[in-house]
Here is the input.
Amino acid sequence: MEFVKNVIDTGVVDTGRVAGLSRQIITEMNSIAEFGNVLFSFDDLENMVFKTGEPGRKVNPVLQLSAKEALRAALRDNQDKKLVINSAYRTVAQQHILYQLHLKGIVGKAAKPGLSPHEDGLALDVDNYPDWIRILERYGWQYLGDDLPNDPWHFSFDGGRGDIGNIGVKAFQRLWNKHNSDDQIEVDGDFGGETAKRMNKSPSDGFPLFRLLKLTTPLLEGEDVRVVQEALVEAGFLDAGKVNKFYDTETVEAVEAFQKDKGLVVDGKVGPNTRRILLA
Ligand SMILES: [Zn+2]
Here is the structure.
């Protein structure tokens, strides 16, 4: 498995390598109840192309809603021109990589994770910016490229909820905690050393959708355990009365019996193979 640290160690600037992790961070940002939906996909807008090919790898096509709606209006009213987008939203994982490469002298200038304007969903880098400066400025998108020698195509939308960099950091901290029950970190929206350490250890394709179920102290508990227990009941390896959402010794024994029966490695753990066959 490739981790964020491995991506940094290549010394190559390719934030698309953490596209999977980035998608999970964006989804998590939109699922923090106190903030509501913060980022909206804009790849449904017409009259616009992504320079780097399909969005989703190098470019995260999301913006805050007011920024998206202003862009929609600008594109709708100027259909004789095509907007070519270099970059839009950057997740805290991508900014972490850029910042680390900056510390190594590979990237000229980079904000600390959580602090880049590209992490707010209010920034767009437009490849053919000379054609769009006057237009976009009429719709609330300020051209800032004059002041940014490394970023001559940079536009910033004035509005929305402003800086949401801390929400991105919180989303990552929550995501880490969800997938690392034995290594919980503080969810404070501040990208400090402890958070950076976990970012380095995060899989670049994103966290596996299912956690590995195994015997632990305290016992793993959750809906995922219940689903496995019910499948074991269905398959005749566990008593219905033992379904309790805890991955306990009875469940381990039932899993071992199931694995033996199916010719799987008998380890009493539910990983991808056992899960696929058990829940098929
Ligand atoms: Zn920019």
